[in-house]
UniProtKB/TrEMBL annotation:
Superkingdom of origin organism: Bacteria
Annotated protein name in UniProt: L-alanine-DL-glutamate epimerase-like enolase superfamily enzyme
SMART domains xrefs: MR_MLE (SM00922)
Cofactor note: Binds 1 Mg(2+) ion per subunit.
Keywords of the record: Magnesium, Metal-binding
């Protein structure tokens, strides 16, 4: 069993929206294929991966460091002797040879793309849905994956020329799609305006639905605390990324004045950064939410280690709700018993969203029962995957 080629494409996911920190007008994604010499059902076996939104495509690091190392590795060193198959952890270690600790940044994104493809490949080689393979093989796997995963709809971005009526229409649309929790961006407007947006949404939500808010790391400590005091008596699901993602002191000061759940972690790119967050961020393992995203932070191979490290610090997988809105994190949530996963209905297409045949029902979504991640079960993604397949 051999890897024949590793290919990638850069694909735009441009959009006119913005959060408190960035515009998404020039955002793009790397999509990668690991092509093997194996055939299943008459088709060559290819594993596919991509990065989440919020970071950019990684053509430089993939071409200069990551792909040459994997293609240059002794082929048998990538094979698990027990299964005889190409193994994600072995591919991961080949990709990371001669990389120093720390300095994660875009390297973590590039390896995350490769690792998603390696898990898709491993599951296709095994003929198993990836959530089953992970649940059975990973240290943090539960043995049997969840049949359905809680998901919430992240939206409520700031768009040029869109007012509160359009915002309410957008969030109502998510409820109509079956979501029960929606999320709104804050911090891109003055506090009074943000409060008016939040209160308009709360007034619109039916019984059984709730709202989270996300500041995208925008605030300094004083502003984050001013917002915390303004938000603390509102029935919010959580208050997300009030301060810079690496400012654990500031986060702990916000936690002192905000009794409700805080959420953060999407901009942490390694196990060590997640450990530092729970050591020093003042977060509370009985209520706060950790949002590290495998597809931005060295993949599931690293996330599995992160979950083990979090457990040593008293944090359960039931406090984790990964950022990203893609099928890989959905599978990880099912395999490891996470609380849920983010979703971006209708935005960041075609990478956001789940398989066509798995609608959201009452806030939960099922997973495709096909070999691999099931990326081919999302019709809008198929033309992108085909561009890599047919070269
Ligand atoms: Mg966020």
């Amino acid at each position: 069993m051999r890897i024949l080629d590793i290919r990638h494409l850069t694909v735009p996911i441009e959009s006119e929206m913005a959060n408190a920190y960035i515009s998404f007008a020039s955002m793009d994604v790397s999509v990668l294929a690991i092509v093997t010499d194996q055939v299943r059902d008459g088709e060559p076996v290819i594993g596919f991966g991509f990065n989440s939104n919020g970071r950019y495509a990684q053509p430089g690091i993939l071409d200069h460091r990551i792909i040459p190392r994997v293609l240059g590795a002794e082929p048998d060193s990538l094979i698990d002797p027990d299964t005889g198959h190409l193994a994600p952890d072995r591919i991961w270690h080949a990709a990371m040879i001669n990389e120093k600790p720390g300095g994660h940044g875009d390297r973590a994104v590039a390896v995350g793309i490769l690792d998603m493809a390696a898990w898709d490949l491993a599951a296709k080689l095994a003929g198993r849905p990836v959530q089953h393979l992970m649940a059975e093989r990973a240290a943090s796997g539960t043995g049997t994956p969840l049949e359905r995963v809680w998901v919430y709809a992240a939206g409520g971005y700031y768009y040029p020329d869109r007012g509160t009526a359009a915002l309410l229409d957008e969030l109502r649309g998510y409820l109509d799609l079956g979501y029960r929790t929606v999320k709104l961006k804050i911090g891109g407007a003055p506090l009074a305006e943000d409060l008016a947006r939040i209160e308009a949404v709360l007034a619109m939500l039916p019984d059984g639905a709730d709202l989270a808010v996300d500041a995208n790391g925008r605030f300094d400590t004083a502003t984050a605390i001013t917002y915390a005091e303004a938000l603390r008596d509102l029935p919010l699901r959580w208050y997300e990324e009030p301060v810079d993602p690496l400012d654990y002191q500031a986060l702990s000061e916000v936690a002192e004045v905000y009794p409700g759940p805080l959420a953060t972690g999407e901009n942490l790119l390694s196990r060590q950064e997640a450990v530092n967050l729970v050591r020093y961020g003042g977060l509370r393992p009985d209520r706060d939410v950790l949002q590290m995203d495998s597809a931005l932070s060295y993949g599931f191979t690293e996330y599995d280690r992160t979950l083990a490290a979090l457990a040593e610090h008293g944090w359960s997988p039931g406090r984790c709700v990964p950022h990203g809105g893609h099928q890989f994190n959905l599978a990880i949530a099912a395999a490891c018993g996470l609380a849920g996963a983010e979703s971006y209905p209708g935005i960041f297409e075609p990478f956001g969203g789940f398989a066509d045949a798995d609608p959201v029902v009452d806030g939960y979504v099922t997973l495709p029962q096909v070999p691999g991640i099931g990326l081919e079960q999302k019709s809008s993604l198929v033309p992108v995957l085909d561009r890599l397949r047919d070269r």
